[in-house]
Amino acid sequence: MQEHILVVDDDNDVLELLEYTLRSAGYDVLGFLNTKHVREVLAQERIDLILMDRSLPDIEGSLYVEMLRSKNINIPVIFLSGKDSQEEIKSAFLKGADDYMTKPFDVEELLLRVKAVLRRSNSQTKEVVQNLEYKDIALDLNLQKVRIQDQDVSLTKLEAALLKLLIQNRGRVLDREYLLKKVWKNSQNIHQKTVNVAIKRLKEKIDPSNNKEYIKTIRGVGYMMA
Amino acid sequence: MQEHILVVDDDNDVLELLEYTLRSAGYDVLGFLNTKHVREVLAQERIDLILMDRSLPDIEGSLYVEMLRSKNINIPVIFLSGKDSQEEIKSAFLKGADDYMTKPFDVEELLLRVKAVLRRSNSQTKEVVQNLEYKDIALDLNLQKVRIQDQDVSLTKLEAALLKLLIQNRGRVLDREYLLKKVWKNSQNIHQKTVNVAIKRLKEKIDPSNNKEYIKTIRGVGYMMA
DNA sequence: ATTTTATGTCACCTGATTGTAATATTTCTG
DNA sequence: CAGAAATATTACAATCAGGTGACATAAAAT
What we know:
Two copies of one chain form a homodimer.
Chain A: E1 4-8, H1 12-24, E2 28-32, H2 38-44, E3 49-53, H3 61-70, E4 77-81, H4 86-94, E5 99-102, H5 107-122, E6 132-134, E7 137-140, E8 145-148, E9 151-154, H6 157-168, E10 174-175, H7 176-183, H8 193-206, E11 215-218, E12 222-225
Helix pairs in contact in A: 6-8
The structure holds a DNA duplex (30 and 30 nucleotides).
Protein backbone atom coordinates (compact mmCIF):
# COMPACT_ATOMS: atom_id res chain seq x y z
CA MET A 1 0.00 0.00 0.00
CA GLN A 2 1.11 3.52 -0.70
CA GLU A 3 2.78 5.32 2.14
CA HIS A 4 1.51 8.68 3.27
CA ILE A 5 3.84 11.51 4.11
CA LEU A 6 2.78 14.77 5.67
CA VAL A 7 5.02 17.74 4.92
CA VAL A 8 5.01 21.07 6.72
CA ASP A 9 7.13 23.92 5.41
CA ASP A 10 6.30 27.60 5.35
CA ASP A 11 8.41 28.22 2.27
CA ASN A 12 6.10 27.50 -0.63
CA ASP A 13 8.95 26.78 -3.01
CA VAL A 14 10.50 24.23 -0.70
CA LEU A 15 7.09 22.71 -0.05
CA GLU A 16 6.44 22.29 -3.74
CA LEU A 17 9.84 20.80 -4.30
CA LEU A 18 9.25 18.31 -1.52
CA GLU A 19 5.80 17.42 -2.77
CA TYR A 20 7.07 16.90 -6.27
CA THR A 21 10.05 14.85 -5.19
CA LEU A 22 8.15 12.60 -2.85
CA ARG A 23 5.26 12.07 -5.25
CA SER A 24 7.67 11.14 -8.00
CA ALA A 25 9.08 8.56 -5.64
CA GLY A 26 5.63 7.04 -5.26
CA TYR A 27 4.51 8.44 -1.94
CA ASP A 28 1.21 10.04 -1.19
CA VAL A 29 1.98 13.56 0.00
CA LEU A 30 -0.02 16.02 2.03
CA GLY A 31 1.64 19.41 2.13
CA PHE A 32 0.97 22.27 4.55
CA LEU A 33 2.40 25.74 5.01
CA ASN A 34 1.72 25.71 8.73
CA THR A 35 0.55 23.37 11.47
CA LYS A 36 -3.02 24.67 11.71
CA HIS A 37 -4.77 21.65 10.28
CA VAL A 38 -2.18 19.02 10.99
CA ARG A 39 -3.89 17.57 14.06
CA GLU A 40 -7.13 17.04 12.18
CA VAL A 41 -5.37 15.35 9.32
CA LEU A 42 -3.48 13.07 11.68
CA ALA A 43 -6.75 12.14 13.31
CA GLN A 44 -8.37 11.28 10.03
CA GLU A 45 -5.71 9.88 7.73
CA ARG A 46 -3.14 7.22 8.14
CA ILE A 47 0.15 9.10 8.08
CA ASP A 48 3.38 7.13 8.04
CA LEU A 49 5.92 9.92 8.25
CA ILE A 50 6.09 13.63 8.93
CA LEU A 51 8.63 15.93 7.31
CA MET A 52 8.75 19.16 9.25
CA ASP A 53 10.48 22.46 8.87
CA ARG A 54 11.62 23.92 12.16
CA SER A 55 10.92 27.57 11.60
CA LEU A 56 7.21 27.81 11.06
CA PRO A 57 5.02 30.91 11.28
CA ASP A 58 2.81 29.69 14.07
CA ILE A 59 5.07 27.53 16.21
CA GLU A 60 8.61 26.21 16.27
CA GLY A 61 8.51 22.84 14.51
CA SER A 62 10.22 20.85 17.20
CA LEU A 63 7.89 22.22 19.84
CA TYR A 64 4.98 21.08 17.74
CA VAL A 65 6.47 17.60 17.50
CA GLU A 66 7.08 17.60 21.24
CA MET A 67 3.39 18.36 21.68
CA LEU A 68 2.47 15.50 19.35
CA ARG A 69 4.68 13.10 21.25
CA SER A 70 3.10 14.18 24.49
CA LYS A 71 -0.24 13.22 23.00
CA ASN A 72 1.18 9.81 22.23
CA ILE A 73 1.38 10.43 18.53
CA ASN A 74 4.52 8.57 17.61
CA ILE A 75 4.59 8.90 13.89
CA PRO A 76 8.20 9.19 12.72
CA VAL A 77 9.42 12.73 12.11
CA ILE A 78 12.30 14.00 10.02
CA PHE A 79 13.21 17.63 10.60
CA LEU A 80 14.36 19.92 7.85
CA SER A 81 16.07 23.03 9.03
CA GLY A 82 18.38 25.82 8.08
CA LYS A 83 19.76 25.73 11.58
CA ASP A 84 22.68 23.39 11.77
CA SER A 85 24.20 24.09 15.17
CA GLN A 86 24.82 21.12 17.42
CA GLU A 87 22.45 22.51 19.99
CA GLU A 88 19.61 22.86 17.53
CA ILE A 89 20.08 19.36 16.26
CA LYS A 90 20.30 17.84 19.69
CA SER A 91 17.22 19.62 20.93
CA ALA A 92 15.28 18.32 17.94
CA PHE A 93 16.22 14.74 18.74
CA LEU A 94 15.34 15.28 22.37
CA LYS A 95 11.90 16.40 21.31
CA GLY A 96 11.29 13.22 19.40
CA ALA A 97 12.94 13.48 15.99
CA ASP A 98 13.87 10.41 14.02
CA ASP A 99 16.26 12.21 11.75
CA TYR A 100 17.44 15.71 11.01
CA MET A 101 18.54 17.24 7.73
CA THR A 102 19.94 20.70 7.25
CA LYS A 103 18.95 22.92 4.35
CA PRO A 104 19.91 23.05 1.64
CA PHE A 105 19.53 19.33 1.37
CA ASP A 106 20.20 16.87 -1.41
CA VAL A 107 16.84 15.50 -2.50
CA GLU A 108 18.24 12.07 -3.21
CA GLU A 109 19.69 11.86 0.26
CA LEU A 110 16.36 12.99 1.65
CA LEU A 111 14.59 10.22 -0.23
CA LEU A 112 17.05 7.68 1.10
CA ARG A 113 16.62 8.87 4.67
CA VAL A 114 12.86 8.84 4.27
CA LYS A 115 13.07 5.30 3.05
CA ALA A 116 15.35 4.26 5.89
CA VAL A 117 13.03 5.69 8.52
CA LEU A 118 9.96 4.14 6.92
CA ARG A 119 11.66 0.79 6.68
CA ARG A 120 12.17 0.72 10.43
CA SER A 121 8.90 2.15 11.55
CA ASN A 122 6.60 0.42 9.17
CA SER A 123 7.26 -3.11 10.14
CA GLN A 124 6.41 -2.02 13.64
CA THR A 125 2.85 -1.49 12.48
CA LYS A 126 1.62 -5.02 12.76
CA GLU A 127 -2.02 -4.42 12.43
CA VAL A 128 -3.90 -6.51 14.89
CA VAL A 129 -7.23 -7.39 13.41
CA GLN A 130 -9.83 -7.47 16.07
CA ASN A 131 -12.45 -10.14 15.98
CA LEU A 132 -16.13 -9.46 16.29
CA GLU A 133 -18.84 -11.30 18.13
CA TYR A 134 -22.58 -11.42 17.90
CA LYS A 135 -24.63 -13.81 19.97
CA ASP A 136 -23.06 -17.21 19.37
CA ILE A 137 -21.19 -16.06 16.28
CA ALA A 138 -17.49 -15.28 16.49
CA LEU A 139 -16.08 -13.71 13.36
CA ASP A 140 -12.38 -14.17 12.76
CA LEU A 141 -11.44 -11.47 10.27
CA ASN A 142 -7.91 -12.73 10.06
CA LEU A 143 -8.78 -16.17 8.87
CA GLN A 144 -12.03 -15.13 7.30
CA LYS A 145 -14.11 -17.66 9.09
CA VAL A 146 -16.84 -17.78 11.68
CA ARG A 147 -17.20 -20.03 14.63
CA ILE A 148 -20.82 -20.80 15.36
CA GLN A 149 -21.56 -23.01 18.31
CA ASP A 150 -18.17 -24.67 18.03
CA GLN A 151 -18.58 -25.12 14.32
CA ASP A 152 -15.99 -23.55 12.06
CA VAL A 153 -17.34 -22.14 8.84
CA SER A 154 -15.07 -20.48 6.33
CA LEU A 155 -16.33 -17.41 4.56
CA THR A 156 -15.46 -15.82 1.27
CA LYS A 157 -14.04 -12.32 1.17
CA LEU A 158 -17.41 -10.86 0.29
CA GLU A 159 -19.27 -12.77 2.97
CA ALA A 160 -16.76 -11.74 5.59
CA ALA A 161 -17.04 -8.08 4.63
CA LEU A 162 -20.82 -8.25 4.74
CA LEU A 163 -20.98 -10.00 8.07
CA LYS A 164 -18.44 -7.62 9.55
CA LEU A 165 -20.52 -4.64 8.55
CA LEU A 166 -23.71 -6.19 9.87
CA ILE A 167 -22.21 -7.04 13.22
CA GLN A 168 -20.54 -3.67 13.55
CA ASN A 169 -23.90 -2.04 12.94
CA ARG A 170 -26.03 -4.39 14.98
CA GLY A 171 -29.43 -2.96 15.68
CA ARG A 172 -29.24 -0.66 12.72
CA VAL A 173 -30.85 -1.33 9.37
CA LEU A 174 -28.39 -1.18 6.50
CA ASP A 175 -29.97 -0.35 3.19
CA ARG A 176 -28.78 -1.80 -0.07
CA GLU A 177 -27.25 1.42 -1.29
CA TYR A 178 -25.10 1.64 1.83
CA LEU A 179 -24.07 -1.99 1.59
CA LEU A 180 -23.10 -1.60 -2.04
CA LYS A 181 -20.95 1.36 -1.18
CA LYS A 182 -19.26 -0.25 1.79
CA VAL A 183 -18.91 -3.85 0.72
CA TRP A 184 -18.68 -3.59 -3.03
CA LYS A 185 -16.70 -0.37 -2.78
CA ASN A 186 -15.86 1.20 -6.09
CA SER A 187 -17.29 -1.52 -8.31
CA GLN A 188 -19.50 0.08 -10.89
CA ASN A 189 -22.94 -0.95 -12.07
CA ILE A 190 -23.75 -3.48 -9.44
CA HIS A 191 -27.48 -4.10 -9.18
CA GLN A 192 -29.19 -3.75 -5.86
CA LYS A 193 -30.59 -7.25 -6.31
CA THR A 194 -27.08 -8.53 -6.01
CA VAL A 195 -27.22 -7.69 -2.34
CA ASN A 196 -30.18 -10.00 -1.87
CA VAL A 197 -28.29 -12.91 -3.29
CA ALA A 198 -25.18 -12.18 -1.28
CA ILE A 199 -27.20 -11.97 1.92
CA LYS A 200 -28.94 -15.20 1.09
CA ARG A 201 -25.64 -16.93 0.59
CA LEU A 202 -24.32 -15.58 3.85
CA LYS A 203 -27.43 -16.70 5.71
CA GLU A 204 -26.97 -20.17 4.31
CA LYS A 205 -23.41 -20.31 5.59
CA ILE A 206 -24.00 -19.10 9.10
CA ASP A 207 -27.40 -20.70 9.60
CA PRO A 208 -27.89 -23.68 7.31
CA SER A 209 -30.99 -24.94 9.07
CA ASN A 210 -32.48 -21.49 8.82
CA ASN A 211 -33.90 -21.31 12.31
CA LYS A 212 -31.71 -18.73 13.96
CA GLU A 213 -32.78 -15.50 12.31
CA TYR A 214 -29.38 -13.89 12.71
CA ILE A 215 -30.02 -11.58 9.79
CA LYS A 216 -33.38 -9.93 9.57
CA THR A 217 -34.91 -8.57 6.39
CA ILE A 218 -36.49 -5.17 6.72
CA ARG A 219 -38.86 -5.05 3.83
CA GLY A 220 -38.47 -1.96 1.68
CA VAL A 221 -35.25 -0.93 3.41
CA GLY A 222 -32.51 -3.50 3.82
CA TYR A 223 -31.07 -5.91 6.34
CA MET A 224 -29.98 -5.88 9.95
CA MET A 225 -28.75 -7.98 12.81
CA ALA A 226 -31.14 -7.63 15.69
CA MET B 1 16.22 -4.77 29.24
CA GLN B 2 19.70 -3.59 28.37
CA GLU B 3 20.34 -2.94 24.73
CA HIS B 4 23.33 -4.40 22.98
CA ILE B 5 25.39 -2.41 20.55
CA LEU B 6 28.11 -3.81 18.38
CA VAL B 7 30.79 -1.33 17.35
CA VAL B 8 33.36 -1.79 14.61
CA ASP B 9 36.11 0.77 14.14
CA ASP B 10 39.70 0.17 13.20
CA ASP B 11 40.90 3.22 15.07
CA ASN B 12 41.47 2.02 18.61
CA ASP B 13 41.11 5.48 20.10
CA VAL B 14 37.76 6.05 18.45
CA LEU B 15 36.63 2.57 19.43
CA GLU B 16 37.51 3.19 23.06
CA LEU B 17 35.74 6.52 23.02
CA LEU B 18 32.63 4.92 21.59
CA GLU B 19 32.73 2.06 24.05
CA TYR B 20 33.12 4.43 26.95
CA THR B 21 30.39 6.79 25.77
CA LEU B 22 27.86 4.10 25.05
CA ARG B 23 28.57 2.18 28.26
CA SER B 24 28.14 5.35 30.25
CA ALA B 25 24.78 5.77 28.61
CA GLY B 26 23.76 2.33 29.84
CA TYR B 27 24.26 0.19 26.79
CA ASP B 28 26.04 -3.10 26.58
CA VAL B 29 28.85 -2.65 24.08
CA LEU B 30 30.84 -5.13 22.06
CA GLY B 31 33.75 -3.47 20.28
CA PHE B 32 35.74 -4.80 17.36
CA LEU B 33 38.63 -3.47 15.31
CA ASN B 34 37.56 -5.39 12.21
CA THR B 35 34.70 -7.52 10.93
CA LYS B 36 36.39 -10.89 11.36
CA HIS B 37 34.23 -12.22 14.16
CA VAL B 38 31.13 -10.15 13.65
CA ARG B 39 29.11 -12.85 11.96
CA GLU B 40 29.70 -15.29 14.80
CA VAL B 41 28.72 -12.74 17.37
CA LEU B 42 25.55 -11.89 15.51
CA ALA B 43 24.65 -15.54 15.41
CA GLN B 44 25.12 -15.94 19.12
CA GLU B 45 24.15 -12.69 20.79
CA ARG B 46 21.15 -10.49 20.56
CA ILE B 47 22.45 -7.32 18.96
CA ASP B 48 20.14 -4.34 18.71
CA LEU B 49 22.31 -1.94 16.78
CA ILE B 50 25.57 -1.86 14.86
CA LEU B 51 27.83 1.18 14.71
CA MET B 52 30.20 0.78 11.86
CA ASP B 53 33.14 2.68 10.53
CA ARG B 54 33.31 2.68 6.77
CA SER B 55 37.03 2.38 6.23
CA LEU B 56 37.99 -0.92 7.75
CA PRO B 57 41.15 -2.91 7.16
CA ASP B 58 39.50 -6.01 5.79
CA ILE B 59 36.47 -4.70 3.93
CA GLU B 60 34.68 -1.45 3.25
CA GLY B 61 32.08 -1.10 6.00
CA SER B 62 29.12 -0.49 3.77
CA LEU B 63 29.95 -3.52 1.66
CA TYR B 64 29.97 -5.58 4.81
CA VAL B 65 26.56 -4.27 5.74
CA GLU B 66 25.30 -4.95 2.25
CA MET B 67 26.44 -8.52 2.71
CA LEU B 68 24.63 -8.76 6.04
CA ARG B 69 21.45 -7.40 4.50
CA SER B 70 21.70 -9.89 1.69
CA LYS B 71 21.78 -12.61 4.34
CA ASN B 72 18.61 -11.19 5.79
CA ILE B 73 20.27 -9.74 8.83
CA ASN B 74 18.36 -6.54 9.35
CA ILE B 75 19.82 -5.18 12.53
CA PRO B 76 19.91 -1.37 12.37
CA VAL B 77 23.21 0.14 11.32
CA ILE B 78 24.59 3.61 11.87
CA PHE B 79 27.66 4.42 9.82
CA LEU B 80 30.47 6.55 11.14
CA SER B 81 32.74 7.90 8.50
CA GLY B 82 35.28 10.51 7.66
CA LYS B 83 33.90 10.59 4.17
CA ASP B 84 31.22 13.19 3.91
CA SER B 85 30.56 13.49 0.20
CA GLN B 86 26.98 13.17 -0.97
CA GLU B 87 27.86 10.12 -3.00
CA GLU B 88 29.41 8.34 -0.06
CA ILE B 89 26.43 9.05 2.13
CA LYS B 90 23.92 7.99 -0.47
CA SER B 91 25.70 4.78 -1.25
CA ALA B 92 25.72 3.92 2.44
CA PHE B 93 21.96 4.34 2.67
CA LEU B 94 21.50 2.31 -0.47
CA LYS B 95 23.44 -0.50 1.14
CA GLY B 96 21.12 -0.56 4.12
CA ALA B 97 22.15 2.17 6.54
CA ASP B 98 19.73 3.56 9.07
CA ASP B 99 21.75 6.68 9.74
CA TYR B 100 25.08 8.19 8.84
CA MET B 101 27.35 10.42 10.89
CA THR B 102 30.51 12.04 9.71
CA LYS B 103 33.62 12.20 11.82
CA PRO B 104 34.41 14.06 13.89
CA PHE B 105 31.06 13.65 15.52
CA ASP B 106 29.50 15.11 18.61
CA VAL B 107 29.10 12.27 21.09
CA GLU B 108 25.87 13.66 22.45
CA GLU B 109 24.36 13.80 19.00
CA LEU B 110 25.55 10.28 18.40
CA LEU B 111 23.80 9.12 21.55
CA LEU B 112 20.61 10.85 20.49
CA ARG B 113 20.71 9.30 17.05
CA VAL B 114 21.41 5.89 18.56
CA LYS B 115 18.42 6.33 20.79
CA ALA B 116 16.20 7.44 17.92
CA VAL B 117 17.11 4.43 15.81
CA LEU B 118 16.65 2.03 18.70
CA ARG B 119 13.27 3.52 19.54
CA ARG B 120 11.99 2.70 16.08
CA SER B 121 13.55 -0.66 15.58
CA ASN B 122 13.19 -2.15 19.00
CA SER B 123 10.11 -4.26 18.71
CA GLN B 124 11.31 -5.56 15.41
CA THR B 125 14.75 -6.96 15.92
CA LYS B 126 14.43 -8.45 19.35
CA GLU B 127 15.37 -11.92 18.29
CA VAL B 128 18.82 -13.22 17.81
CA VAL B 129 19.55 -14.64 14.42
CA GLN B 130 18.15 -17.72 15.95
CA ASN B 131 16.81 -20.97 14.75
CA LEU B 132 13.14 -21.58 14.58
CA GLU B 133 11.04 -24.65 14.82
CA TYR B 134 7.60 -25.59 13.72
CA LYS B 135 6.23 -29.07 14.09
CA ASP B 136 8.91 -31.29 12.60
CA ILE B 137 10.62 -28.45 10.75
CA ALA B 138 13.81 -26.94 12.14
CA LEU B 139 15.01 -23.85 10.35
CA ASP B 140 18.68 -22.92 10.53
CA LEU B 141 18.90 -19.30 9.49
CA ASN B 142 22.67 -19.16 9.48
CA LEU B 143 23.10 -21.97 7.06
CA GLN B 144 19.80 -21.38 5.32
CA LYS B 145 18.73 -24.91 5.80
CA VAL B 146 15.76 -26.77 7.10
CA ARG B 147 15.80 -30.13 8.72
CA ILE B 148 12.58 -32.00 8.14
CA GLN B 149 12.24 -35.40 9.69
CA ASP B 150 16.00 -35.84 9.65
CA GLN B 151 16.22 -34.70 6.05
CA ASP B 152 18.41 -31.72 5.34
CA VAL B 153 17.04 -29.38 2.71
CA SER B 154 18.90 -26.26 1.69
CA LEU B 155 16.86 -23.15 1.06
CA THR B 156 17.47 -20.07 -0.99
CA LYS B 157 17.66 -16.66 0.64
CA LEU B 158 14.12 -15.89 -0.36
CA GLU B 159 12.73 -19.19 0.81
CA ALA B 160 14.47 -18.85 4.15
CA ALA B 161 13.07 -15.37 4.67
CA LEU B 162 9.58 -16.51 3.78
CA LEU B 163 9.68 -19.54 6.01
CA LYS B 164 11.11 -17.51 8.87
CA LEU B 165 8.27 -15.04 8.66
CA LEU B 166 5.67 -17.75 8.43
CA ILE B 167 7.02 -19.60 11.43
CA GLN B 168 7.39 -16.44 13.48
CA ASN B 169 3.80 -15.61 12.76
CA ARG B 170 2.36 -19.06 13.09
CA GLY B 171 -1.37 -18.97 13.47
CA ARG B 172 -1.63 -15.61 11.81
CA VAL B 173 -2.46 -15.09 8.18
CA LEU B 174 0.11 -13.06 6.30
CA ASP B 175 -1.31 -11.27 3.31
CA ARG B 176 0.63 -10.73 0.13
CA GLU B 177 1.14 -7.06 0.74
CA TYR B 178 2.74 -7.76 4.10
CA LEU B 179 4.91 -10.50 2.69
CA LEU B 180 6.08 -8.29 -0.14
CA LYS B 181 7.05 -5.60 2.31
CA LYS B 182 8.85 -7.90 4.72
CA VAL B 183 10.45 -10.42 2.41
CA TRP B 184 10.96 -8.45 -0.78
CA LYS B 185 11.72 -5.25 1.15
CA ASN B 186 12.49 -2.25 -0.91
CA SER B 187 12.13 -3.87 -4.32
CA GLN B 188 9.63 -1.92 -6.32
CA ASN B 189 7.07 -3.18 -8.76
CA ILE B 190 6.90 -6.73 -7.62
CA HIS B 191 3.61 -8.36 -8.54
CA GLN B 192 1.52 -9.96 -5.87
CA LYS B 193 1.41 -13.10 -8.00
CA THR B 194 5.09 -13.46 -7.38
CA VAL B 195 4.25 -14.39 -3.82
CA ASN B 196 2.18 -17.31 -5.06
CA VAL B 197 5.09 -18.67 -7.01
CA ALA B 198 7.53 -18.20 -4.15
CA ILE B 199 5.18 -19.97 -1.76
CA LYS B 200 4.71 -22.76 -4.23
CA ARG B 201 8.45 -23.23 -4.51
CA LEU B 202 8.84 -23.21 -0.77
CA LYS B 203 6.08 -25.76 -0.35
CA GLU B 204 7.80 -27.97 -2.87
CA LYS B 205 11.04 -27.83 -0.90
CA ILE B 206 9.69 -28.50 2.55
CA ASP B 207 7.00 -30.93 1.54
CA PRO B 208 7.78 -32.59 -1.78
CA SER B 209 5.10 -35.22 -1.44
CA ASN B 210 2.60 -32.52 -0.66
CA ASN B 211 0.80 -34.29 2.14
CA LYS B 212 1.83 -32.28 5.17
CA GLU B 213 -0.06 -29.04 4.71
CA TYR B 214 2.53 -26.97 6.52
CA ILE B 215 1.49 -23.83 4.68
CA LYS B 216 -2.17 -23.13 4.34
CA THR B 217 -3.69 -20.86 1.73
CA ILE B 218 -6.39 -18.52 2.93
CA ARG B 219 -8.13 -17.59 -0.26
CA GLY B 220 -8.51 -13.91 -0.79
CA VAL B 221 -6.13 -13.13 2.04
CA GLY B 222 -2.78 -14.84 2.08
CA TYR B 223 -0.88 -17.70 3.67
CA MET B 224 -0.29 -19.05 7.14
CA MET B 225 1.26 -21.87 9.10
CA ALA B 226 -0.87 -23.91 11.46
C1' DA C 1 34.34 -15.42 -18.31
C1' DT C 2 31.46 -19.24 -17.93
C1' DT C 3 28.33 -22.01 -15.72
C1' DT C 4 24.97 -22.67 -12.42
C1' DT C 5 21.39 -21.18 -9.54
C1' DA C 6 17.74 -18.15 -8.09
C1' DT C 7 13.88 -15.54 -9.05
C1' DG C 8 10.36 -12.66 -11.47
C1' DT C 9 6.93 -12.92 -15.03
C1' DC C 10 3.90 -15.01 -18.06
C1' DA C 11 0.37 -18.17 -20.06
C1' DC C 12 -2.62 -21.59 -19.06
C1' DC C 13 -5.59 -24.50 -16.08
C1' DT C 14 -8.73 -25.45 -12.36
C1' DG C 15 -12.06 -24.64 -9.16
C1' DA C 16 -14.25 -21.13 -6.26
C1' DT C 17 -16.71 -17.03 -6.16
C1' DT C 18 -19.97 -13.87 -7.57
C1' DG C 19 -23.25 -11.08 -10.65
C1' DT C 20 -27.38 -11.60 -13.22
C1' DA C 21 -31.52 -13.13 -14.90
C1' DA C 22 -35.37 -16.17 -14.57
C1' DT C 23 -38.63 -18.05 -11.47
C1' DA C 24 -40.84 -18.87 -6.97
C1' DT C 25 -42.38 -17.22 -2.67
C1' DT C 26 -43.65 -13.94 0.69
C1' DT C 27 -45.62 -9.68 2.19
C1' DC C 28 -48.38 -5.78 1.79
C1' DT C 29 -52.47 -3.15 0.30
C1' DG C 30 -57.00 -2.58 -0.70
C1' DC D 1 -58.73 -12.77 -1.58
C1' DA D 2 -56.46 -10.69 -5.71
C1' DG D 3 -52.80 -8.22 -7.44
C1' DA D 4 -48.59 -5.85 -6.99
C1' DA D 5 -44.25 -5.22 -5.04
C1' DA D 6 -40.44 -6.94 -2.60
C1' DT D 7 -37.63 -10.58 -1.53
C1' DA D 8 -35.93 -15.46 -1.80
C1' DT D 9 -34.32 -19.11 -4.49
C1' DT D 10 -32.18 -21.28 -8.21
C1' DA D 11 -29.39 -21.92 -12.20
C1' DC D 12 -25.88 -20.39 -15.05
C1' DA D 13 -22.27 -17.76 -17.05
C1' DA D 14 -18.49 -14.66 -16.26
C1' DT D 15 -14.86 -13.52 -13.52
C1' DC D 16 -11.29 -14.22 -10.29
C1' DA D 17 -7.83 -16.25 -7.35
C1' DG D 18 -4.51 -19.45 -6.93
C1' DG D 19 -1.57 -23.36 -8.74
C1' DT D 20 1.60 -24.96 -12.24
C1' DG D 21 5.22 -25.28 -15.62
C1' DA D 22 8.02 -22.71 -18.92
C1' DC D 23 10.97 -19.15 -19.91
C1' DA D 24 14.15 -15.13 -19.50
C1' DT D 25 16.88 -12.51 -16.83
C1' DA D 26 19.55 -11.56 -12.67
C1' DA D 27 22.60 -13.09 -9.22
C1' DA D 28 25.93 -16.20 -7.47
C1' DA D 29 29.34 -19.53 -7.85
C1' DT D 30 33.12 -21.46 -10.21
